[in-house]
Amino acid sequence: MNVGKISESVLKRSVLQQLHTRSEDVLNGAGIGEDCAIFALSDTEAAASCMQEAAVAPQSELADTNDMGEGEIRISMRHLLLRCANNLAVSGAVPTAAAVTLLLPKTAEPDLIRTLMREAESACAELSMQIAAGQTRVTGSLSVPWAVVTGYGRADRRRCRAVRRAGADQDIVLSKWVGLEGTAMLARRHRRELLARYPAYLADQAADFDRYLSVLPEAALATKSNVCAMHDASEGGIFAALWELAESAGIGLTIDLKKIPLRQETVEICEYCGLNPYGLLSGGCLVMTAEDGPALAEALLAERIPAAVIGRTTDGNDRIIRNDDEIRYMDRPGMDEIYKI
User: Fold this and answer.
1) Could you give the number of structural domains in the chain?
2) 260 secondary structure, DSSP code
């Protein structure tokens, strides 16, 4: 199988079809495009939980260690915790705590553990989350450190239900730009080559796209603005996020390709690397559906959060991409473009 997320068909056959036990306390469980579990606490309160894992490295080393071989990627503890916090916020929950598990190779030193945990604590302070539990183990099966983060949040039960699922005939709104996460990784890894082709400011700005990766502000505002559904873009890029949104709701899409917002830095770096920006890691971009998309976009813009209406949901299963007069059908998500490097 390819590196990265398993394919949707394998996920359905080998994972989801094996799950049969149900609990009345679980309001939302495992499924396509479902990043959080929602648990009933009372008639009005709910709890949310999500899990993220990745190979990790200290922030200071990422420019030199993004390429592990075998197509894998290493990220910072801040980045990993931010992914969890984003998932929780998109479910309608307020992130409150995390459990952090570190799995370390036999070559790891105590200083590495100390650095990773210090960076995790700093990220949690930034996100108002407490590291409440975890485990640290050394294993001979790994060559680099891996971390598993389980995030926890609290929510209003009605609010969680209000942002659970898209419906037909709704506007699709995106926040910020697609490809931010992957662009930052590529800019750090290929800085030397990029400087031979582009001005230094372009490479520097692209490497600093990490500052855009939180979707907590737009998720909070959208929840107050009668958003119908939210899904944060991540692995597989914006096309994967749109597909998952539609698949989980059993609806179709019509997307205007030219309205999908892209930073010029992403365009240039993807062209240099021979990658499709629409299939590139897109953390920091939030997909939303709303009855009145222009009003939601205006509300986000009023808070200085870039936003654009890029299409509509439709009744049926067709997922269409329009590019002027050209029309094509969206493919099932494949391997993220970042792994092609």
Assistant:
1) 2
2) S
Residue that has been written with the tokens 């391997």 in this structure: 335
Residue with tokens 């520097």, as numbered in its chain: 204
Q: Which two tokens stand for residue 80?
A: 């990993």
> Looking up tokens 């493919």, which residue turns up?
331
* Same domain? 203 vs 146: no
Residue that finishes a domain, picked among 101, 134, 161: 161
Q: What gap in Å lies between CA 75 and CA 266, rounded to an integer?
A: 19
Which domain does 97 fall in, by range? 8-161
Strands 286-290 and 229-232, sheet pairing: antiparallel
Query: Angle, to 10 degrees, between the axis of helix 77-90 and the axis of helix 110-127?
Result: 30
32, 20 Cβ separation under 8 angstroms: no
Q: What is the pLDDT of residues 3-31, one digit of tens each?
A: 778 777 888 888 888 988 888 888 787 77
* 139, 29: one domain: yes
Task: Specify whether 250 is located in the same domain as 181.
Answer: yes
Which tokens is 226 given? 């009668």
254 and 321 in a single domain? The answer is: yes
Predicted TM-score of the model (pTM) = 0.90
